[in-house]
Design brief:
The protein is α/β, with parallel strands linked by helices and 295 residues long. The chain is built from twelve helices and nine strands. It starts with a strand and ends in a 22-residue tail after the last helix. The relative contact order is 0.10.
Length: 295
């Protein structure tokens, strides 16, 4: 199988590396040409356009931020949809409105293309090691064409339904928990700092106690290091929790914790931290002295 991957960000680059290690015939594209060229130095082919990549690929994997960017990958000028051969597979890894994902399957089907609704989770480190999770939904024919490629990128490939939508729904629920956990972790650390508790000691105790979560352990380490380099930015959770709330609003389902967490990320974004790591949500709390970066 010839594989093309679009989007060499924190997750996409790691996924491309896993595909390269797996021996797949790999092409890559990124809106930053230097990112594709840099990746291709160790193997794979850097393409000058999405269309070039799509023409030469049996499977196109899109690892961009949102539905709008996915639309551009597929249907924008020089997009993949017009260039892909009939019977090829488009694998969509973004966090999107599940209804949009359902509609996309139908649109691609009319073009003779297969579609895999395949949001991802696990972070950049797991993506780089081929250990991330994929929440997928697709027709059996789509799985038959791309299953080895999915398995090369992820330790867990969950097949949730035989049609699109379920993957995106499960990812929305995951993001509800992830966003709430980050917001709660930031609130807890902020209270500890306000009360004069040593931040490193608090982190050590919580990460070995019942109150720990993966997000506390991962994101509060960023706070201790005073490193807000965006592995996942504040605005990602403005978007993702917004999708969570939109999904629930459609069926009049109350989400009080998700609503509060969304407001916290919105506050952090408007305060100037939109492109910082999502752990920067801790900066909205007044009267605390955050750890500073050690030289």
């Amino acid at each position: 199988m010839k594989v093309g991957l679009v989007g060499l960000g924190a997750m996409g680059r790691g996924m491309a590396g896993s595909l390269r290690r797996g021996g797949h015939d790999l092409r890559v594209f990124d809106v930053r040409p230097e990112a594709a060229r840099d990746f291709a130095k160790e193997g794979g082919i850097a393409c000058a356009s999405v269309a070039e990549l799509a023409q030469a690929s049996d499977i196109v994997i899109s690892v961009v931020v949102n539905a709008a960017q996915t639309e551009d990958v597929l249907f924008g000028t020089g997009g993949a949809a017009a260039a892909m051969k009939p019977g090829s597979v488009f694998v969509m890894c973004s966090t999107v409105d599940p209804n949009w994902s359902v509609a996309l399957e139908s649109r691609l089907e009319k073009l003779g293309l297969f579609y895999v609704d395949a949001p991802i989770s696990g972070g950049a480190a797991k993506a780089a090691n081929g250990q991330m999770t994929m929440m997928t939904a697709a027709k059996p024919e789509a799985y038959a064409r791309c299953e080895p490629v999915l398995n090369a990128m992820a330790a867990k490939v969950y097949k949730l339904d035989h049609k699109a939508g379920a993957g995106s729904k499960v990812k929305i629920i995951n993001q509800l928990l992830a966003g709430v956990h980050i917001a709660a972790a930031a609130e807890a650390m902020a209270l500890g700092l306000r009360e004069g508790v040593d931040a490193a000691a608090l982190y050590e105790v919580i990460t070995h106690s019942a109150g720990n979560s993966w997000m506390f352990e991962n994101r509060m380490a960023h706070v201790l290091a005073a490193d807000y380099t965006p592995l996942s930015a504040v605005d990602i959770f403005v978007k993702d929790l917004g999708l969570v709330l939109d999904t629930a609003r459609a069926s009049k389902f109350p989400l009080p914790l998700a609503s509060t967490a969304h407001q916290m990320f919105m506050q952090a974004s408007t305060a100037g931290f939109a492109r910082e790591d999502d752990s920067a949500v801790i900066k909205i709390f007044p009267g605390i002295s955050l750890p500073s970066q050690k030289n």
